[in-house]
Amino acid sequence: MPPIVIIGAGIVGAWTAVECLDHGREVVMVEPAESGGRQAASYGNGGWIMEASLLPVATPGLWRSLPSMLADPRGALTVRWRHLPELAPWLVRFLAAGMTGERVAAIAAARHNLVQGARNRYAALAREAGLEHSIASAGHLFVYPGQHEHRSEALSWDTRARYGHGFVPLQGEVLRKFEAGLGPGYGYGALMREGQNLPDPGGFVAGVTAYAVRRGATVQRARAIGWRFEGERLRAVVTDRGEIEAAGAIVTGGIGSLALARAAGDRLPLESERGYHVVVREPEYRPRHAVMPSDGKMAIAMTPAGLRVAGQVELASVAAPPDWRRIEVLLDNLHRLFPAIPRRPAADRLDRWFGHRPSMPDSLPVIDRCARSPDVHYAFGHGHSGITMSPGTARLVARLASRLEPEIDPAPYRASRFR
């Protein structure tokens, strides 16, 4: 029997390959570059494993503040205005997703179904793959100027509490002792002890892919560009290096999934939340925990290469060149958070990165079969939560592709919600 082809060897693709192997499938992974390499969104993210990541990006009332947010070139969310006409349909759906409390609660429930148990699944896979050293478990620390600013995010914290995710409050000197290098502008902290992170997310992805190969999967260095169908049955995945015979395929190609979905009959509102990070080598202060400041909204954590500051959402066309001024914004926020780190470290101490977070407007991925054939399935559009959602996504899509009863309701992730 021909193999099932996993298109994309990022974090979702790597997990999906393992799940398909668990179902006894022959697996071929198609990826044009090294798994976990700099080209991948998996490489550049903050690496947080956070089961409490439940709210959509859009929440009730955001539409009121969106114009001022978008007008601020140094804000955590910005739009390149000349791209606004082509982004407008996505933005309308984005705002609609968070328009009511009922809609937000439904999205939070669907996100919970995907992320629950992620920590245990990561621990189990790390043991199996010999990657135990690749997970850090010091917790996630959210810091605010004061308790008032923390209360302003009550919807997020109340939602987390409803699903059993509590926090430890830290104030004043207690917070200073806990994370000594914090700047004077932060007087309140919320520690989530359950938080974990991948200090080297790209390395972890490469390790999982290598584990899949040891179990019998193969990797082909190619770019998938289309399909060959006979009737409604898939016969081959077409790549820039020829055809790969296939009994099935799962598209986990991040932002590159859009063209493949169109070729399979689906026009889906997938956009890139263009993300940036900077790594400061040999930082003057090394935080003990993964930290997120309320004003900068950056995921900050130590990596083997230095202190990584990941964040910023820039909306523009996929082909638009990076705006490296976003790195200056990250460094400004980092200096305010940890004043010991200079506002402008020497250039030879900095490693800049830019990439594409594939995002659906309702902050839920598409996990479903395509319109053209029951042999092609989608698993993409995870936005900021690909690390945490990948175990649940992989388990669901592997069961769907193997015609097995899913363990969770797949309805919230169906492609048809946008048709």
What does this structure look like?
Strand 19 and strand 20 (376-380) form a beta hairpin. It is built from 13 helices and 20 strands. The chain has 419 residues and is of the alpha/beta class. It has helices at residues 11-22, 41-44, 62-71, 84-97, 101-115, 118-129, 147-151, 154-162, 172-178, 201-214, 257-263, 325-337, 386-401; strands at residues 4-7, 27-30, 48-49, 77-79, 140-144, 168-171, 188-192, 196-197, 218-220, 224-230, 233-239, 242-245, 248-251, 271-280, 290-293, 299-303, 306-315, 350-359, 366-369, 376-380.
Give the SSE map.
Layout: E1 4-7, H1 11-22, E2 27-30, H2 41-44, E3 48-49, H3 62-71, E4 77-79, H4 84-97, H5 101-115, H6 118-129, E5 140-144, H7 147-151, H8 154-162, E6 168-171, H9 172-178, E7 188-192, E8 196-197, H10 201-214, E9 218-220, E10 224-230, E11 233-239, E12 242-245, E13 248-251, H11 257-263, E14 271-280, E15 290-293, E16 299-303, E17 306-315, H12 325-337, E18 350-359, E19 366-369, E20 376-380, H13 386-401
Parallel strand pairs: 1-2, 1-13, 2-9, 4-17, 5-15, 13-20
Antiparallel strand pairs: 3-8, 5-7, 6-7, 10-11, 11-12, 14-17, 14-18, 16-17, 19-20
Short description:
The protein is 33% helix and 24% strand. It is α/β, with parallel strands linked by helices and 419 residues long. The mean pLDDT is 95.
